[in-house]
Amino acid sequence: MTGALLRIDNLSCRFGGLWANRDVSFEVEPGAIVGLIGPNGAGKSTLFSMVAGAQRPTSGRLEFDGRDVTGWAPHRAARAGVGRTFQLMRVFGSMTVRENLTTAAFGRHSRLRDARRRADEVAELAGLGPVLDSPAASLTAAWKKRLEMGRALATEPKLLLLDEVLSGLTPTEAREAVEIVRTINRGGVTILMVEHVMEVIMPLCHRVVVLHYGQKISEGTPEQVAHDPTVVEAYLGKAL
Amino acid sequence: MSAPTVLRRPSPARLSGPTGRRLPSWGTAALILAALAAYPLVFADSAAHNIGILALTFGIAATGWNLLGGYAGQVSFGHALYFGTGAYTTAALVRQGWSPWLAIALSLPLAALLAAAVGWPCFRLRHHYYSIATIAVAEIVFILVTNLPGLGQANGWELPVVEQSLANLQFSLLDKRPYYYVALGFFCLAALAVWLFLRGRAGNYVRAIRDDQEAAAAVGIDVHRYKLAAAALSGAVTALAGGYYVMYVLFVDPPSGLGLDLSVSFTLMAVLGGVGRFWGPLLGAWVLVFVQDVTRQEFSGSGRSVDLLLYGALIVLVSITEPGGLLAIGQRLWAPVARRLGGGRGGKAAPEPAGSAEVKP
Question: Is the domain A6-236 a CATH 3.30.365.10 member?
C-alpha cells in the first residue's frame, strides 16, 4: 500500500531488558478506523506513545503523511496532524471545557476569535455543550473522556489516537461515545484506537491489529482476527 | 447524534462558572487604578507614601513572579536574580552618567535574556527540582557579585545624588508623591505587559502547561518555548522593579538586590495575595510591606525577624483557610454581602468576579 497515512516499520521499544514493542509493522490507510488490541501489557500504550512522539523508539521507523517522524517531539507530531487522548484522562483542570478546547484550537488558529469558533464546533460535534463552562477538573470520568476526544479533535488532526476512550463507561455512555467516534471518522479523520473491550471494537473497526508480548501476532478484519487461533490462544490460553 | 441525556449532567454547584481566574476587565482595572491614584491623597503623610512606593515596586516584582510561578506553574525561588539585574544594571549605567530611564529600559531585555538563559537548562527539571535549581543559580550569582571585583562587592554601590527632576528620577524626600506616581506608572506598564501576554494564545498555553505538561505537548504546544517566553517576560518585569527600587533608595548591595530572602518575599507576596490571580501579588506586596513597616517601627532593630514571624503566620493562615490567597478570602466574605446588596450587582466592587470561591482549588 503506497497511500498509507501512518506507516509503522519494524518499530521497537526496549525498557532495560524488557521489549515493550518488538519489530512491530503495520500501516493505517487514510479514512480507516483501525483497532489496536491485545491483553494487558501487550505494548499497546507504548506503541501509541511512540506514534504520538511521547516515547522515543529504540529502533525502527515511523512515517506519517509521507514524512519520517521517527523520534519527533510530541508537539511536533501534534502539529503534523497526530491528535491523541490519554488513557488516564489528562484534562487542563483549572480551565473550563471551552478553554480546554480553545487552547487546543490555538494550534491552527492564532486568533482568539477563530480558536473560539473552532472550539464551539468541536463542542457541538462531541456533545460537550452542556458542560462548556464547567471547570474541567469537576467533570465526571465520562465527560472527561469526551473532553479528551474533543480536545484532540480541536487540534484538527489527520490521525486521531484514541486510548481506551470507551472502557470504564456504562453501556449507554459507551454507545454514545462510539457514535461520536463514527461521526469524527465520517468527517475525514483517520482513527487508530486502543481498546480492551472486544465487543465494542469489533463492529466499529475496519481493521484490527493484535499485539501480544510487544509483538504483532495478527492483523485483519475483525472477523478474521476473532477467528485467528493465535489470537484466541493469546487471550484464553492453549487448548488442553 | 442524539443529545447526551444519559451522561450525568454535572450538578449546578459544579457549574459555578469560569474558574475565577479570569483576567481583569477594563472596569476592574480602572477601579483599582483610581483607588491607587487616590491613595497618596487620602494618606498624606510621608510614611504612608513610602509604604505605597515600596508596595507598588515589590508589587511589580511579584506580578512578574506570578506570571511564571502562578500562571505558568514554574515556581522560581531565584527571582532576586532578575530584580538584581535591574538594580545593578541601572546602578552601573547611572553611575556612568546615563539617564535612569534609559538605564532601566536597557536592563529589561538583559534580564529577559538572562531569564531565558537560566530557563534553558533549568526547565528540563520539573516541580521542586526546578525550584531548587533556581535557588542555586541565584545564590551563585549572589556569591559572585559579593566576591568578584567590579560590582561593588559586599560594600555595594551608591548612586550619585543629582538635581531633582523627572528626567533624573530623583525627587524631594520631603514630598514623596512623585516617587509614588512614577511607581504607579511602572506598575501599570508591568500589569499591561503581563495582561497582554496572558490574554491570548500564550496565556492559554502557559496555563495548559501548568495544568498538565504532557497534555499540553499533545495539543501541539512547544512546552519548552512557552516556558522560556514566560520566564523572559517574568524576568523583565521583575527587573523593572529592581531598576526603580535602586533609583528610590540610591543604593544596592548583594543582600538588598540579590538576596534569597528577596526571592522568597516575591513568592510570599504572590501566595499571600492570591497565586495565579492577576491582582493577588499587588495585594500581597501591600500587606507584606505594611507589616514590615509596622514591625520595624514597633520593634526597631529586631524588626526584621518579627515581620518574618508574622509573614509565616499569615501564610499558614492563608494555606489552611484558602489556598487562593487573600483575594479568594475577600471574595468569599464579599459574596454574601453582594448578594444582600441585590442580585450580585454589588459584586462589581470585588477585584475579581464573585463566585469563584465555590471552585475547588
Answer: no
* Residue at B43 is within a domain: yes
And the C-alpha cell for B47?
510614611
Residues A194, A34 contacting (CB under 8 angstroms): no
Its ipTM equals 0.90
C-alpha B195, offset from chain centre: 13
- Beta strands A159-163 and A190-194, pairing class: parallel
Q: For chain B, how many structural domains are there in total?
A: 1
Nearest Cα to Cα of residue A169 among A141, A195, A147 = A141
- Cβ contacts (< 8 Å) between B214 and chain A: which residues? 54, 74, 86, 90
> How do residues B162-196 score in pLDDT, each as one tens digit?
888 898 888 888 889 999 999 999 999 999 999 99
Range list of H helices, B127-176:
127-147
SS3 of A207, please?
Answer: strand
Please give the residue of chain A at the shortest CA–CA distance from B220: A75
State which residue of chain B sits closest to A77, comparing Cα positions. B220
B7 part of a folded domain: no
Is B281 among the domain residues?
A: no
The H or E element containing residue A68 is strand A67-68
Hey, is the C-beta of A131 within 8 angstroms of any chain B C-beta? yes
Q: What are phi and psi of B171, to 5 degrees?
A: -130, 175
Nearest to B359 among A92, A135, A183 (CB): A135
Interface residues of chain B, partner chain A, Cβ below 8 Å: 1-4, 6-10, 14-15, 17-19, 21, 199-201, 204-205, 207-208, 210-212, 214-223, 276, 359-360
Residue ranges making up the domain that contains B254: 26-157+171-259
The answer to whether position B102 is within a domain reads: yes
Chain B residue nearest residue A80, CA to CA: B220
The string of pLDDT tens digits covering residues B279-292 is 999 999 999 999 88
Residue of A27, A22, A37 lying closest to A6 (CA atoms): A27
Q: A141 CB near a chain B CB, below 8 Å?
A: no
Q: Count of alpha carbons within 13 Å of B92, Cβ hemisphere only?
A: 12
Lookup: cell for B248: 528610590
pLDDT at A1 over 80: no
Assess whether pLDDT exceeds 70 at residue A74.
Answer: yes
